[in-house]
Amino acid sequence: MTPSVAIYLFSFLSGAAALIYELLWSRWLELMLGSSMQAVSIILATFMAGLAIGGRWGGSFIDRHRNPLLAYGIIELFIGGFAFAMPSLLDAVASLPQFWSGSGTALLCQRLFVACSVLIIPATLMGATFPVLTRLIVTTHADIGSTIARLYFSNLAGAVVGVLLSGFVLIEILGLKETNYIAVATNFGIAIAALILARSASFVKHPSTVKPTAPAINQGDTRVLLGALFISGFAAMAYEVFWARILVFQIGSTIYAFSLILAIFLCALAAGSLAARVMLMRGWGFTAFAVTQAFMGFGALAGLYAAGYAPWVEYMLLPRTSGWGEMVLVHSLIALPVVAPAAFFSGMIIPLAASLMVREDTAGLAMGRIYLANTSGAFFGPLLAGFMLIPLIGIQWGIVLIATIQIAVTVLLLLHLGGHRPIAAALVGLVALLFLSVSSGGQLRSTVAMLNEALYEPLFYREGQSGTVSVFRDTNDGSRLLDINGFVAAGTGKGYAVNAK
Predict the structure, then answer these.
(1) Predicted pLDDT at 148
(2) SS3 category, 482
């Protein structure tokens, strides 16, 4: 096995194990903390915080390490060890009564403490792996940007496999703990293979073989680029929270629905990383990175627009399904145009940034800074979306606001580069944004409620932190229905217990 093949394989398997952990541990913590939007946002934010810390930590030390693969093997070994102990640790935390008292802010702080205490260390170790692999791969390839794009793709491809296997197969057949142990075995297998290969001379860095290279971009450009990476990470995770709230009306909030959304998101990211590789092969640099920010915002708006047609897709296709597999396919067709456009362009961001910042002698440090900026934004994204934007301005206008910020970032980046024509193009984009936002506005409703607008008169609508609540009046008998996330929870009529979906 050549060094390159080994590194790509490690990246694939590591990505698969990491997403299995994210799905499993999120499920466990939701059982402990509740499945409300606040709990989900806290779990996602904590995971992202650990990845950010780990990316910066891993990148800062690996450039000085004589044998990066040895360090990588040790990190994977510790990830497996923490993951092996996770079920027992979660059971121990759940048995402590002092963590489940109080209400309001006190309860929220307790939830945050629990999530941080159990997730932060393994997430930090996971975050350190990609900068370390980046340091390994750039020593064997001359085309750094394209090489990192392939490495990123392999990691995302593994993540997709991990989500699909755990969400649709392993958990149902084996259960949560057994699925966790499969991922643990994967980490231990990676660690053993890495430690064995670390003895090879091809993986040992000799000081005489590494020559300092010129910086890719100046310090001013670097700061601008890192700021844009923060915004893109923030936007990606905020969109993910919005998508989950939008699609709950058509595909529900089960583990299968979450796995499906996550798998589509990761597939689109992987496709975007391949597209970034093509752009890098053509020599496009900072300008490509700049316009990708706006394209990501437009993709989110396109997804919002597509969400308006989701009830019609469900109405046309779902009654014609004859099994669980066909139902999953229909749900995929509903979620794909909502999630994929923005996620595709998001997948371009890190490879394009890496092509501008990463050089062989400082590959780990540069990749760590990229990872830190992007995942720091990802830490704030679900918190701001779940706790502020949805309650204050709603899901649709929250998406419009973040997309507007991304397009404004593109304008600023293009101004930083100089030139006037790109500004005119950005202004045209703002007009398109306004058109899309107006066209896609409105209330989120279940398919039945939307198809029977004449039958159900809306009386109340509110998007809150925990769910979307609507009250309808049946125009036939005057009874009222309480709808929560597309399901009728209560009513004054005789048949109110019948699900509206």
Answers:
(1) 85
(2) strand
Cα(15)–Cα(4) distance, rounded to whole angstroms?
17
Q: How far is residue 355's CA from residue 115's CA, in Å, rounded to a whole number? A: 35
- Helix, strand or coil for residue 198? coil
Length reported for the chain: 501
- What is the rounded CA–CA span in Å between residue 303 and residue 257? 17
Predicted confidence at residue 296, as pLDDT, reads 92
CA dihedral 442, 340, 383, 110 (to 10 degrees): 110
For 484, list phi and psi in degrees, rounded to 5: -125, 115
Contacts made by residues 211-218, CB under 8 angstroms, sequence distance 24+ = 211/360, 211/361, 212/361, 213/359, 213/360, 213/361, 214/359, 215/359, 216/355, 216/356, 216/357, 216/358, 216/359, 216/366, 217/286, 217/356, 217/357
For the chain, the maximum distance between any two Cα atoms, rounded to a whole number of angstroms, is: 85
What are the backbone dihedrals phi and psi of residue 174, each rounded to the nearest 5 degrees, phi first?
A: -105, -35
Q: Which of the following CATH numbers is that of domain 447-491: 2.30.140, 2.20.28, 1.10.3470, 2.30.29?
A: 2.30.140
User: Quick one: tokens of 296?
Assistant: 């990501």
Averaged pLDDT score across all residues of the chain: 79
Task: Name which of 22, 41, 59 is nearest 369 in CA terms.
Answer: 59
With CA atoms as reference, report the closest residue to 182 among 191, 171, 197.
171
Please state, in angstroms and rounded to a whole number, the distance separating the CA atoms of residues 284 and 146. Answer: 12
Q: Which CATH superfamily is 1-211 part of?
A: MFS general substrate transporter like domains (1.20.1250.20)
Q: Supply 134's token pair.
A: 């980046």
Using a 10 angstrom Cβ sphere, with 0-12 exposed, 13-18 middle and 19 or more buried, the burial of residue 320 is exposed
Residue 209 has pLDDT above 50, yes or no: no
Residue 241 sits at the vertex; the CA angle it makes with 245 and 460, to the nearest 5 degrees, is 35
The ranges assigned to domains in the chain are 1-211, 217-357+394-442, 447-491
Domains 1-211 and 447-491 share a fold: no
- Dump pLDDT digits (tens) for 310-334: 888 887 887 777 777 788 888 888 8
Of 17, 44, 32, 26, the C-alpha closest to 170 is: 17
The DSSP output letter for 204 is S
Spatial distance between the Cα atoms of 189 and 165, rounded to a whole number of angstroms: 18
